[in-house]
Amino acid sequence: MMLFTACAMAFAHGSNDVANGIGPMAAVVSIVQSGGELTQNSALPIWILIVGGCGIILGLATLGYRVIQTIGTKITELVPTRGFSAELAAAATVVLASRTGIPVSTTHIAVGAVVGVGLARGIGALDLRVIGGIFMSWVITLPVGALLSIFFFFFFRGVFL
Question: Disulfide-capable partner of 30 in 42, 93, 127, 128 (CB 3.0 to 4.6 Å)?
Fold first, then answer.
């Protein structure tokens, strides 16, 4: 059963995170190919999917092990039944969100699922320091992402205008 949920989570991760990653690039390529016009539908070149898949693989191969280690061992104690429950819930949530077109974070959902199985045993089963660190990293990334996007916008506007 764990093999099934691992495959389900891998499928969910690929179906969601590759789409989130390549969406902006696909939009830019579509606009360039159409001569600057926005179109409702456009063809997605296979090379964009390959770049997205390679990006996911590169991320998992470099620092992904730290994320996997934190989710799998540091939030709460996971035994096979808890891991199965968390992974099945996370995979189902991600696939449902992907099917409805909602861009979600697979990692956020996986953390939520593991916190959920930990809470089923009571608040004392959770390492609140780890959860607090994860939460703070989520909060900090929003303004940092906004500031970087402002910087890059003005930088590229200055370069190209």
Answer: 42
143, burial (CB in 10 Å: exposed 0-12, middle 13-18, buried 19+): exposed
- Residue 83 CA to residue 71 CA, distance in Å, equals 10
- Write down the pTM of the prediction: 0.82
Strand, coil or helix: 1: coil
Q: Report DSSP letters for 10-54, one per residue.
A: HHHHHHHHHHHHHHHHHHHHHHHHTTS---S-----HHHHHHHHH
Any residues with CB less than 8 A from the CB of 11 and at least 6 apart, and which? Answer: 91, 95
Pick from 77, 57, 62, 87: nearest CA to 119:
77
DSSP at 126:
S
Which has the minimum average pLDDT: 22-26, 39-43, 84-88?
39-43
From the DSSP assignment, how many helices (H) and strands (E) are in the chain? 6, 0
